[in-house]
Request: fold
Amino acid sequence: MNPSVENLRGAGRLSTDAIIGVVDLVEAMHRTLSPAQILLGRAGEQRTHGITSIVYKSIRGISRLSGVALDTVLGTASALLGTIHDQPATRSPRHEAVRSALNGVLGDHLADTANPLAIDMRLHLHARTTATSSASSGDKLVVFVHGLCLNDLHWQARDCDYGAALARDCGYTPLYLHYNSGRHISSNGRQFAEQLESLMQARHAPLKELVLIGHSMGGLVIRSACHYGAIAGHTWRQQACKAFFLGTPHHGAPLERSGAWIEALLDRNPLLAPFARLGKIRSAGITDLRHGNLVDADWQDRDRAVRSDTRMRMPLPEGVVCHAIAATTGTRTGSLADRLFGDGLVPLASALGEHADARRALHFAPTRRWIGHRMNHMDLLGHVAVYEQIKHWLSESRQRR
Reply:
């Protein structure tokens, strides 16, 4: 299908959903601000009645009909214009950045409604072409997994391209995962594990080394994939010998916890309760970052408004040599900026796997922890000092063998 038409079709669906959502919000406010509701102090979650109710139902009906009509017309046009060629070589970085951000915020909704804007998970070779047999024949693979609202092209948008550098200096074949970061981390982790297994089955030569590098949420997706790969008995789990976590919120991110707190505060106020809906639209991937959910049991059958940490205790993946790379905007570890802000998004303690509850702490070996100073969260995607540390650890392990 034609990319521009499919994008318009996806935006049309999303607009219809947004209009209906706003109508629901306005109706809830209408109900909330009625004299009876204010006097009774009830939250305004009920529908209106009488003529007012008919008006709101009519608006919803017209919006849905308009959305269906637009989607039908654009779907027909897409079919006539041919098949979309979603190849990385033809992708616009600007377009992909917008689409990735949209998927990060509303990705679960896009996937559930089969919206064309939803990103399908796939592996790319050198971030410019889809993974091919050349990736299946290399004996040393390194797979990069991006974070929330980002995409595989972001690994090449900074000062240092880790994949190209590792190919040049160490002979690794780089692969880049592109995925919908708004889905649950466990859903992406399971699918990533399956894709790695499919890649292993397609190989024509033995694999000497498999290295996984994740930035931010990407590190959680890697840990989740290792968990589900082990359960499924995947062959790649015996070959995944190293993992690097760059600014990964192993125990969650404060900004998501703050968002959950504000949502709960609004929900308790009868006059402001309808606005809590705005907080609820954020994706499953974002809410998983509250504490660092990794498996289905961390979120299934649980109210997303629950703010306590009820995760399963999940140690670092067995049989994988794990490395933690954290960053701080401060000039030294232990400074005020270090303690308060970390890299601006993820605190040092979370990135290093530290936790007040010893049972939840991740035990990275002291020699496999590194902190970059005067760096922010996005610097970790392509900083020369970070690359030098990764290369040092990889060279060190080869020398030991």
